[in-house]
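sorry for the late reply, my laptop died twice this morning and i had to redo everyting from scratch. anyway the thing you sent over, i finally got around to it. pasting the sequence first so we're on the same page, its 1315 residues, then the predicted structure underneath. double check i copied it right bc i was rushing
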Amino acid sequence: MSLSRSTSHGSSSCSSVIKALRWLLKSAEVGCLQVVHSVLIGTFLNQKVPRDRKQAPPLPLWALVQWERRVLMSNCTVLEIILLGTSLLMAWGSLRFSDAQRLDLQKIIYHDGTMRGVIWRSKTAVSGMPLAVAAEGFLSKGSHNWLWKFLTVLDTVLAKSGLSDVDFLLPLMDEDGPVYPLQPMDYATALFYLRKFLGCPWSQRPDPLQHLKLNFTLHSLKATLLSWGPQLHEKVTPEQRLSQGHHSDPNSSLDTYSRDVVWTSLTYQRKMIQEVQGGWRPAIAQHRGRMVTFYSFVGIPKGLPPHGISAMKQKFMANYPSELIHADLFPSTRLVSLVHDQLSKKVWKWVPWKYRISLTRFMIGPSPCAKGKVQWLTEIQRDGGFKQLCMRYQVGKCQNPNCFTMHDPFNEVDSVETLPVHDVDPVQDFAPPIDSFTPGRLPQPEQTNAVGYGAASPSCCEYSRLKLRDDDGPKALRSPDHLSGLPNLTPWELQRVQESFMMLSRCVEVLTLVFQAGLRDDSGAFASRVTAQYPQKLAQLFANLVAPLLDTSALDLQWSSLDALMPTKHLSDYPFAQIDGGGAFSHPDWSQDNRQEHDWFKTLRTSWMNRIISERLDKILLAHVASGNPSPPFSMEILTPFKDDLEKFLEAHGHPPDWSVRQHQPIHLHILHSLQKIMHDVDFTLLPSLLEGVRTGFSTAIPPSGIFPPKERADIEPDPLSAHLSNWQSAEEDLPLTRELVQEEIDKGWVFAYKGSLEEAQQEYPAGVAIGKLGVARSDSRAPRLVVDSSVCGLNGRCIIPERSTLPTAKEVLRSYPLRQCQRNLMGFSLDVKAAHKRIVLHPDECGLVGFSLEGQLFFYRVTPFGAVFSAFWWARLGGLLLRIFHHLIWLSHAGFLYVDDFLFFMEANMMPLSATLLCIFCQLLDIPISWKKTAMHSSIDYIGWKFNFNAGIVTIPIEKILKLRGYIEHLVSQPRTTRKSLEKLIGLAMWITQLFPLMRIWIHYWYHDLYTIPATHFSIDAGTWPRIHQYLTPTLTFHTAPLGSAIPISGKLIAVRHQAVSSLADLTSLHIKTENRIWLRIINPNSSKRKLRPDSLRILKLFDHWLMGVSPSRPMRAKPYWNGIAAADACASGSYCQIGGFIRHHSGVQFWLSEKFSHADFDILSIHLDPNMQRSIASFETLAQIALVWLVATSFPGFRIPICVKSLSDNTGAESVSNKLFTTTHPLCLFVEILTCLASTTGIELDVSHIPGADNVIADDLSRWDFSTPIPHDFQPSERIHLSLNQLFRCSPHPTLHPPDSKLLWKLPHPLAM
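ok and here's the structure:
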């Protein structure tokens, strides 16, 4: 009775004691124990509280698929084949381990994709039972399957053993395979291998079941398929489930004459295969009994990826290298996941105590301390009675006055009831055990109601400075500079440091609890809380005032309706993406309405899709991509039918298939040319040029593509061709690596060593010979690669490229998101072409133009190398053609992009694997060199440096980019005198980041000013040279020849002579120069790399640094909703005056307008210096008018910050451009764009400005020319006018306004200038 009423967590229980005594009575015949069979004692065996019986959990589907895939791999070892094959056979056959070890191997029959056998003895069938397993599994088609491979290897093992009668399935194994002579493996060893292979040790990915393996037993194999059956409801019958589980059936007499009676279980298994291959996934089954809770098959909540904890550990160790992280100190997976989930959602909830455990406790299940191993403070004596420790009492769910919490102070404590604490480990256990408190310091009964004294005595030996003495004393583990531990400590020494710190922190915690002790009321709450409450009547008055503002309508949201709640992007909704990398006749968003393209590849796509679906090749591709395998996903056996379909398609269109390949490149250009002709592609000169060998544009013109905009040729005279027999430092500093890289390119046929001299090469290549400088490009994210500098030898400057390619930015991806009329989940797919530029062969006559030298040996390229301008142009054309073909192959609603050699596609998640398989098969058939290891297919894709999450609809800047930019900023702030290269790095990275943060881009114009402002330097000339100085200068005062004996640089610009400014040759003759001394000239050297940052640039550097410290690395991919109305603005200027006008009109009919006139003096007051003839700054005033429109819209929503986009009209192309791009370096226009971005940031309102011809912009034009005396044009009302001063337009800081305006206040609003 004492045990039945006990609340102790001891290991003994009432029922177990009774059952033990009854067993002893029966076995030992102890007559005095007959009383245990009495009715009174038996009543204690009646369980009043139902308890769940512990059962082995079934395996996740993921584990069976991974095992099956491993068995099918060619590098699978004999050990893995035997163990994994046995596990799969037990799972498919629903066998216990004892059943598998009683399988007669001589009676196994393998026929028609089925294995049948007999278990000669079972737990439920003494005379044995039949067994059958379907061989195909989830991944196999045809005769080659996991079961055939397993039986083949097992047959080899049996033949090698020489035994004729083996009646067990799983033999004892070691690392080399079976142990001979064969003997059955024991249960413990088999369980060890099961849990080991649950982690897929052959895979390089993190183990998703790392902390859950101990839940699984060998009986989990039997439970797996049986647990899936009930989830299919009527699709499987009870008879099939009974047969699969080998359970007895009332119709057993029928089975007696059915021989092996296994066909029903085979039907069950194949039904499972059919459902899984059709997309069904079994849910995680309910787990029974006391074990670690399963939240998904990987055991962690959604939101924290399997590799997340590993990354957090690495980051922690990088920041705190001296700290210990091991299973005893690290929090459990569940605890980390819960805290991560709450942190990401910004919602804080109570974390149950059962999850506040270490990783060790988590892996071994609920801590045995709950059963008596270690006891904490559980019971205190107070007021003559006992109080129980209660966590429900702490969170307000328990009102029992006989309960207390760990947060209660230790006042009025009479005694403490605990069990012995001899088994306490202060390092492994988080909560302070009772022996970590000082018993003599606990309050005694004679003390008053308040704690009068608290003391703690932490061990301070590891903090002692005496250890720092240089003598024979104990080794110091810490120092004042290394309080977390000295470098190079052993793990044991680090543990001592950690324990010392833990004891100190616990003592501080105890003293804090003592300090927090205070007077409490009868409910246990602090008495001072009463004074912090609102009186009830006052609270009711507040509630009455707030009630009208609250919506009382209830709206219950269901998770299943989540997709329907997301806004749909309709066919006509802005924005529209324009650039995808495929040229003028290609567009990225293929979800738009009224597409003009013809479906040229419909028949080919239909036949390919049918094959992909019937053979489930999309599943193979998904698995291949997930594994990161660098080899192609499909074998030639799989590709052959697709090749046949392609040949039939080409022949049907009158193009005989030609699979020949041009030398030195892998792509089937003839097939590609036929497809280009079928789809009537406009770049008809591309494929003939690729087949012949492309031109560089040096001596022979490159034929234009007709898909890219024409490129303007610079008027600068290019440098002549030259030969450089030395290389850049990056190639010279590691010659073995450079030689290795050159040899790799020779082996691939891209480069050949020239046997002759430079003169002989010039004779062999009359078109020209250029020897560039070789370099080695190194990167943290990719292997080193060769780069030939074709600019230093004059080649790039002399190659005429007729067009400039267009590349998509991250904004184009955002403009395409989401797909129109789509509310389903999206998935992305990315492809990377390996060494793209080097897949294009040069014309043999022009190979001499692309050469380099290494250790006295000349080398020339056969292909277009990385670093030449024509290489990028030719690949842009070929890549653009591939993108256009890919668009037509997919055809379904999707979006696609090409940035240099990186393809990105996204579409509905259920169709993306099929379309991706289509593209991969096409690439393999045409031998397009894809880097399969980099291929990605997921809802989250890394592309051109950004991380796009197509499900969540967010794009993220990698934190490494932010830290890199902050590093550039820190360097330049500390060294304002810098170099051009440092400024270019800063500007390039800042321009890249501000693609998606355009409101910050305008401030970069200060850095551009410093980049192009070259500091002048003083040079001296002899006095005798001064009379002839004009002979060395051009009319623009640029030196075309250096005076004899001077260091003046060629192309240097003369700006001053002896501190007298000059701007023309005429100024030189008017100078008064004494010629007896040397004459100092101030000259700007355009080739100088020195730069100096102005105070304004330093201010912007600090602004960017402050912004980067607090900016969210993620931003939504969805565009801001467009304001439902029309808006237009205009400006005019004449002399020293300008005037702006504009209006906004909502669809409801509400409208506002403005017309303001400003003078030149008004701008001077604000330190905005303009040309006296204000007409020359008309683009600035047009931009000011657009700023005023934003103010008008903001006035429509007083007191709110509305994230919307306003469609506006302007008849000035300059204002239209800068209002959309939010960037210019032109002064003073850049100052007005700064104001526009500040206003957009303050109000949340952005502009999308379109051009309107001046003749049509009548309303805004008339408002900008109104003389303020005649009637207001176009029937606008005075009450609709918004007055905006120039000071208000340029001061974007918000200020309070009163709405409605006629409201009465007992105080005055603060003046805007005072804020």
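Residues 727 and 1238 are 48 Å apart (CA to CA).
thats about all i looked at so far, will dig more tmrw
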